[in-house]
Specification:
The structure holds 2 protein chains of 2 kinds.
Chain A: H1 7-11, E1 19-24, E2 30-31, E3 46-50, H2 52-58, H3 61-66, E4 96-98, H4 100-106, E5 110-115, H5 125-138, E6 143-147, H6 151-163, E7 166-172, H7 177-184, E8 189-193, H8 197-207, E9 214-215, H9 221-226, H10 229-238, E10 246-250, H11 255-269, E11 281-287, H12 292-299, H13 324-334, E12 338-341, H14 343-357, H15 363-377, E13 386-391, H16 416-422
Parallel strand pairs in A: 5-13, 6-7, 6-9, 7-8, 10-11, 10-13, 11-12
Antiparallel strand pairs in A: 1-2, 1-3, 4-5
Helix pairs in contact in A: 5-6, 6-7, 10-11, 11-13, 12-13, 14-15
Chain B: E1 2-5, E2 19-22, H1 27-37, H2 41-45, E3 56-60, E4 63-64, E5 80-85
Parallel strand pairs in B: 1-5
Antiparallel strand pairs in B: 1-2, 3-4, 3-5
Classes of the chains: A alpha/beta, B alpha+beta.
Chain lengths: 425, 94
């Protein structure tokens, strides 16, 4: 461990604190705040434990609305204490767009899109990375890293630059060029691993024993994951402090899916939203080419059988999804489902969203919209429900999957005659 | 002789050692051997049914044993067995 300031050094003296420590999701064992992601007794995942009584005393809708126009308006529910500096690029508080044209096509009168491609590095990863890098910096780490399918590397590299930290990003060697360019400009050390994401992840899981680095999505994962909650906090706030009836969420590791369930509980328990008659249904979206969670869902089991990913939706192509069992449990508990879409449906979803709502999303967003469309056409909704789809990344990250210039492109000489002859108006 | 790679937080069980050498025919007996030298490992790695816990991955020479022969996987000279905690969950029971 690097030389970390103690709690009292950070705060300038003892005080009531909202972040109590880490707790094992499986056996309940408790740990002090440190860079560790698994329980030493049972290997279960560790979550941040808060003192909700402390939070309850300060939090309110008004306090949140007075906060910054970023996800940090929810700082009371994030694991970075108030006095610690944060590393921010203005992430979060992204638009919640009412999608009337897409909704009309799908028979949904109250369809919303949470457009998280509007984040600083154009994916929702900025939420989790801002928390992870802030935590690492406060705790004395000088180097941060991550295992990534591309978007996370992009974000970690940017926030490392912002924080002035050394940075190592590990990616599969076939990561899309667009993501690598957008990452490389921040001058991190890029380690291209000959293998898929699961191979990269395993390597990094072993490296944490050798390097005093904060790996955002490994040993710092309990803190990192908390940033995901802000997507759902903001959605409720933007809906006028109401929860939607259903949320469609793309599934990679399942990490953010689990956090959205936690976010809903926190909103309800702290009285930030009125207690709903029923919890929002949380529905997961996967690409059929990498659908281990969907496979388990269909088979009626929580046991995930790893798969070897083969899909254009590489940013969510995790064959051995760490939170898969929890996704299934939560989908079932809330009345959601897990669905998967083909490669063709992914591209159709991207183009449908662009055509109807003017939003260009990456392949993962195509999975989300493809799943939304598939479920709508299968008659899942009556039409009155408030349904929100999380659009988690920008289309320019994966431009190669859509036709260059679109299908309606024509090329003409610079003459009026050519225009009249070739362009149908 | 095969070598176990012990993750940092479990080195309290192995007296601080990052690697432990064992002699065994298969993964199950390798874990028995590890546990006999450093008691406590078996209970950490295996559940009540004697199968790898849901949240721990065992890799034999870079291959996830769950995708192979599980605890029956033969273990030979110079093989490396890595104990890798799943990142926030993961794993599966067979």
């Amino acid at each position: 461990m690097p030389n970390s300031p103690t709690k009292s050094e950070i705060s300038g003296g003892p005080r009531t604190r909202r972040v109590k420590g880490l707790r094992c999701r499986e056996c309940g064992a408790e740990y002090q705040l440190q860079a560790i992601h698994f329980c030493q007794a049972c290997f279960g995942p560790l979550d941040v434990a808060y003192d909700y009584e402390v939070i309850r005393q300060v939090i309110s809708r008004e306090r949140i609305q007075r906060g910054p126009a970023s996800m940090w308006r929810y700082r009371d529910l994030l694991p970075i204490e108030d006095e610690a500096p944060i590393i921010t690029l203005g992430e979060g508080f992204t638009p919640l767009v009412k999608a009337d044209r897409l909704g009309a096509l799908l028979g949904l009168k109250n369809l919303y899109l949470k457009n998280d491609s509007m984040n600083p590095t154009n994916s929702f990863k900025d939420r989790v990375v801002s928390v992870a890098v802030s935590w690492a910096r406060v705790h004395g780490y000088e180097t941060i890293g991550c295992a990534s399918t591309g978007n996370l590397a992009n974000s970690v590299a940017a926030y490392a630059a912002r924080a002035g930290l050394e940075c190592y990003v590990f990616v599969p060697d076939d990561t899309e060029e667009g993501k690598l360019i957008a990452t490389g400009v921040f001058e991190p050390n890029v380690v291209a691993v000959r293998g898929n994401y699961d191979d990269v992840n395993r390597l990094c899981s072993q490296l944490i024993d050798e390097q005093d680095w904060a790996f955002c999505n490994i040993n710092v994962r309990p803190y990192y994951a908390e940033g995901s909650k802000t997507l759902t906090f903001e959605t409720a706030e933007q809906l006028g402090w109401e929860l939607p009836d259903e949320i469609i969420i793309p599934i990679a590791s399942g990490c953010q899916f689990v956090r959205h369930r936690r976010a809903i509980q926190e909103l309800v328990d702290l009285g930030l939203v009125d207690k709903p008659d029923r919890l929002p249904r949380l529905t997961g979206a996967q690409a059929a080419g990498c659908a281990p969670v969907y496979n388990a869902w269909r088979e009626g089991t929580e046991q995930i059988t790893p798969v070897r990913p083969q899909t254009i939706a590489r940013s969510i192509a995790i064959g051995n999804p760490s939170d898969g069992p929890y996704v299934i449990r939560i989908a079932r508990e809330t009345g959601g489902v897990v669905e998967a879409v083909t490669e063709e449906e992914i591209v159709d979803g991207m183009r449908l969203l662009a055509r109807t709502e003017g939003i260009f999303t990456e392949t993962a967003g195509g999975v989300t919209i493809g799943t939304l469309a598939k479920l709508a056409r299968a008659g899942r909704w009556s039409g009155e429900e408030v349904v929100v789809a999380y659009i988690t990344g920008h289309g320019l990250k994966t431009p190669e999957v859509v036709p260059l210039g679109g299908e309606r492109r024509v090329e003409i000489e610079p003459t009026m005659r050519a225009f009249r002859e070739k362009v149908s108006v | 002789m095969a070598v176990f790679r012990i993750p940092g937080p479990l080195r309290s069980l192995s007296g601080g050692e990052s690697t432990v050498t064992v002699e065994a025919q298969d993964l199950r007996t390798a874990i028995d051997e590890l546990d006999s030298r450093f008691p406590g490992f078996k209970g950490r790695l295996l559940d009540d049914e004697g199968q790898p816990r849901q949240f721990v991955n065992l890799f034999l020479n870079e291959e996830d044993v769950r995708q192979g022969q599980g605890l029956s996987s033969p273990v030979g000279e110079k093989d490396e067995i890595a104990i890798v905690p799943a990142v926030a969950g993961g794993g599966l029971r067979r």
